[in-house]
């Protein structure tokens, strides 16, 4: 548990990235809606212009239409009514413009986030397995949810309000100067004081927004991990301990939120009070100027309205700046994932359908024939078809997940077409690592792996994996029907092929007993099935793919002995004519293998068939007879 906590603590100490570059990348997404953005900016200009002009109308309204009528009997109100009507029309135009650009910004922002999430998801499909092995799923999900959600606030509200505030300050400043320079200097002087306050408060709060996003990712990661492991938590009565762990992480998020929001919350009341001071100073100075005859009442009224509203867009800009900081913190994490190097694939050899004539000559076919071939390109532009037989050989392979820490040491072995090769050994001996290398989940830095005589580094990864059927110890089922999950192994498989595959794995009998048979909807990861039933569906999925090479990584570990015996016949049919790699702790499942490889600390210490290894009375003999247990 302490290790889990420290892992989350380490994440939040990451240094901030280039905010200018991050903003530029956000805008590159945003500006894909250029025509709509131009319309939004025009509407903002119209809205701001109407808002600023409405305050200016106070001057002629008072000077020309109210003051002259004071004390007049039977005054002509037509001019006053006309001016009020003009002001009402201007207000209406401003309000309608605001409504239109707000609606358009919702469309633009949601479209931007949709594209960004799509890019994220597409990029995730191109990342190597190493990335998923070294990053928590909760942290990855946080980039799809919390981090992109902070961008929604910035794109839909902050961006238009920032433009609106800049235009409002500019238009208002020009009109105030045209009304009276002396009063304008008072306002501008106070604005300098406000700007200094904004600068220091924003600089103080900026660092906390990054911590908020990191802390939220920690909360998600820890929550997901504990939810997935609830069975283990309850078995070992660790509820109170994980509550303490969550409390620590959650409190970090709370403190970061308090610090960031505390600084932001201080800004609004401070700006409001300074604006009141500005208003009072302008009122006092304006009144004295009016008494001395330097200013008329209408100009004072109009100017006071501008002085009251002038600080508002500046305050809004400072508030929006904080939202921008939060959005940039989230966007940095999103782009950090997008910048993660994709899985490299320099393979040129592809897998094609093939057919063989009476002379044994291979030709490429456009339809499924039941026979496969490797299409090998040569430097002179010609291609050669090499029949896929399933001959797999490892030659002096050395590999480690981390530098200077090898997992496999000088591994050499071969599997001839149609052979069953079993890997036996303690946990961590390197059994699964070998299958990971055959799949090219990881590339071999030292040594070679050849598939039908072709270095697998020359084979395109997608084509290599199409030739391999894999049944893992961990069952992974998807939302959908039972039929959909079986068909996942071969998307163009017919219902009949899926049912035949289920029968081959002896899954058909239990499937037909489900409420809707093959049309039964599965809950999250097949939660409405037993562990053994989920594994049977995994085996059915591999069977329908009909691959020439099979990898069974503890495929029957989740199945009880009775069920295991039931599917042995089906598995034998599935494995017939195929090269098969088996990893198993139950040694009874590997005794019929053509060759058994005993691994220890990343090295092959014994190899042979069951009878020869028993006769040697070495490590395998000890494991099989129970003199030594697998760990």
Q: Largest sheet at a glance?
A: 6 strands, mixed
Corresponding CATH superfamily of the largest domain = ABC transporter type 1, transmembrane domain
Task: Using the coordinates above, name the CATH class of the largest domain.
Answer: Mainly Alpha
**Tally of helical segments:** 21
Q: Can you count the beta strands?
A: 16
The average pLDDT value, as a whole number, equals: 82
Strand fraction band?
5-15%
Strand arrangement, largest sheet? 10-13-14-7-15-16
Shape: elongated
Helix content: 55-70%
What low-confidence regions span 5 or more consecutive residues with pLDDT below 50?
1-16
CATH-defined topology of the largest domain: ABC transporter transmembrane region fold
| Structural class category | alpha/beta
Gyration radius over CA: 36 Å
* CATH architecture annotation name of the largest domain: Up-down Bundle
Report what the structure shows.
The protein has helices at 2-11, 19-30, 34-56, 58-65, 78-125, 129-134, 137-144, 146-179, 181-228, 230-235, 239-291, 297-338, 431-438, 461-466, 482-487, 495-504, 508-512, 531-545, 561-575, 610-616, 619-625, and strands spanning 350-356, 362-365, 372-377, 383-387, 392-399, 408-415, 420-425, 446-451, 454-455, 468-471, 480-481, 521-522, 549-553, 579-583, 595-600, 603-608. It is of the alpha/beta class. It has three domains: 18-338, ABC transporter transmembrane region fold (Up-down Bundle), CATH 1.20.1560.10; 350-387, no CATH class; 392-625, P-loop containing nucleotide triphosphate hydrolases (Rossmann fold), CATH 3.40.50.300. Strands 10-13-14-7-15-16 form a six-stranded mixed β-sheet, sandwiched between helices. Strands 2-1-3-4 form a four-stranded antiparallel β-sheet. Residues 1-16 have low confidence and may be disordered.
